[in-house]
Each structure stands twice: as structure tokens, then as C-alpha cells.
Amino acid sequence: MMFDNVVDPLEKLELIDALQRLGLSYYFEDEIKKTLKNISINLSSNVAWKKDNLYATSLEFRLLRQHGYEVNQDVFTSFMDKDGNIKASFTHDCKGLLNLYEASYHLVEGETMLENARELAAKLLKQCLKQNNDQYLSMLVEHALELPLHWRMLRLEARWFIDAYEKNKDKNPIILELAILDYNIVQAMHQEDLRYASVWWKDLGIAERLTFARDRLMENFLWSVGIIGAPQFGRGRRTQTKVNALITYIDDVYDVYGTMDELELFTDAVERWDINATQKLPNYMKLCYHALHNSINDMAFHTLKEQGIDVLPFLKNLARWYYIGYKPNLQEYIDNAWISISAPVLLGHAYLETNHVTKEGLQTFEEYHPNIIRWSSTVLRLANDLATSSYEVKRGDIPKSIQCYMHETGRSEEEAREHIKKLIDAA
Hints:
427 residues, mainly alpha, Glycosyltransferase, 69% helix
């Protein structure tokens, strides 16, 4: 009904954008898909509403690309001069520049026009902040320059955007009221999920016995909310938190505590997936192995019971990809980093918990696993290095990408960080 009352294409796009940023899009999935499909079909016709409108063109481009539609970067040609710069007539269009900047983060390899447009838009937006008197627009610009929308965690973005949207003179008060109510309801669901995870973690007893490792259940849960924040995926968040917590502990065993002989025995036990293979392990490793083994089997049991699909072989493969693939070799850091960050394991579990599982789906996931997962895993690994590498090296962890680059090139840490940021953009 809400979409039926909106006729103008730009207003429909603005509505979709607001619903997404407020965390309400899951209520309107069918309407959003239908609207974007119609806009995509009429991409080259009925263009009067977006002609010479940088804001409308950029918003359309971003939303269509975000939802998997093909849109050529050439739609921005009319806004660029012969030297590749943004035309002077658009250099003071703060709203248009902001949306161009956000749209540029949906570029694909080789789209140099958008790469250049991002740099130009960022510089012009900084000038806009000095001259703009619109509080709402200024908030959006500052927010985007700090971290683009495409890189933000949706649930945290929803909380921030609720406060920002209140200052929008053109806001829809009904949507805003729904967003506030929905946020509180979903927050209560998340709190219940966290309560469940806390009880599970305490009963497991690992944190009390293995005090050398990081006890970060809250961070593990927050990460799960970032991946699976929608209310209907409560079990997915709980499972994801379990997997993440176990990986964090076992990762510390590999990185800073276990001896090479112990690690080889542990890796062999995971490869064989046999309780009897743990007989030669020290007690602390037996505890880790049994926690991993029992948790994986329990997850497989629930999927078998509820969906009739045996996913245990798939889950065991996820564990093997991680532990067998771990090779702390500095020169091969990047090649191995996408596995050592454990994203294949985490994303594999996320897939199982948010989709109706079929044998064909599992086969496709395993066949195309490197291509689907590798680049997102690389981004996660490198972004994690930017945030935590100094702390991890101090506690005896292996060198991260920043230290590897500094060692190989003799560059400063600041230069190394800039290089890693470029690698993230490229990935």
C-alpha cells in the first residue's frame, strides 16, 4: 500500500533507501524487488525525472547495483567534462556528490570513471561541509566520509540513521515511528539471543580453563548480528556466535600457545573427525576438540531434524578448510590469509542458517567456494589487520599483513597501512 501511493520514480527510490537504512526493508521485500525491477526495465526510457540530475542518477545506480542489476557506469558520462573531472555546474551539488560518492563503492574492476569520481567527490564534499547549512545533509556527508554506507554494519547503521532521519525536513513520520518501534523489538530479540549464547558459553567451561585465550563472546555475538541481523534469523545468530567463539579460542591455540607437535596432532584429529584421535593430545587441546566436535555435530543434527538434510559432511569440510589450510608463512600471508581469518567457516554456517538447504545448494557452495568466498574473506582479513595487528603482534601472534609489507619493503607503518587499504579496495 505504501508503494502504491508513490508514483514518481525518484520518490520510490528515496523510499527504498530510507527503508533500507532504517532497518525496515525486510517488511517490504516484495515491493522493493518489484519496484527496482520496473525501474531496471525502463532504465533507458522515461528518463526525464533523472536527466541532468546527479542525485537521482547516483541513487538509482547505487540501489540497482546493490540489488544485483546491471547498470553501466556510462550513466555518469554527462556529469563529467572532457578531462574526466566533474562538471563545474555540479561541484556545489552536495546531495548529488554525496550519492555519487556512495555509488562509486559499487564499482567493478576496470571502472576507472567511478574510481576517479570517488576521489573527486570526496574532495568536493569536504568543501561542501564548510558551506552547507543543512544539518541533515551535513550529518550524512560526515558519516559517509568517515565510512561509506557500503562498508557499514546494517544494524548499527539503522540505529544511527534513526537519529539522523529525525532531522530530515522531508521525513515520513509514520516510517520513523515504525523504525523506532521495530528497532526496540529486534533489540529485545538480540538480547535474548545473547542471553542464550552466554548460558551456552558458561556451560562449555572453556573460558575458565583456557585463560590464555581471548574471551570475547560479546564481540563474537556482535559480529554475528552484523552478518545476520534480521529478526527471523535468531538461530543463525546463535549458531554463528558459537562457531565464532570456538574459532577465536582455537585460533589462539594455533597462534600463541600450542607447540608445533601439538598443532599437528590437533590438525590430524580434525582431519579424521574421530574422538579416538585425541588420545595423544594434551588436556587443554582435548577440551577444544571436544567442544568443536560436539558443537558441529549438534548443528548438523538440528538441520537434519528440521530440514531433512545431512549437512555434517559439509560442516566437517568447513572445519578442515580452516585448520588444514593454516600455514603461518610470512611470504605466503595474503594467499593464506583468506583461510586463516576463518571466513569460509563463518560464511558457510551463515549460509546454512539463512537458507532452505538442499543437496544441490551444498554442492554448488563447495564447488564454487574459492570464487564466492575468497575475496570477501580477504577483505575481512586485511580489515581485521588494520584494526588489531599491533595488539596481536605484541601478545606473540604471527606477523600480520602490515608487518609483512613493512619487512619486505622497508616502508613505515603508515605507508603499509595505506597500501593495505588499497588492497582492500582492489578486493
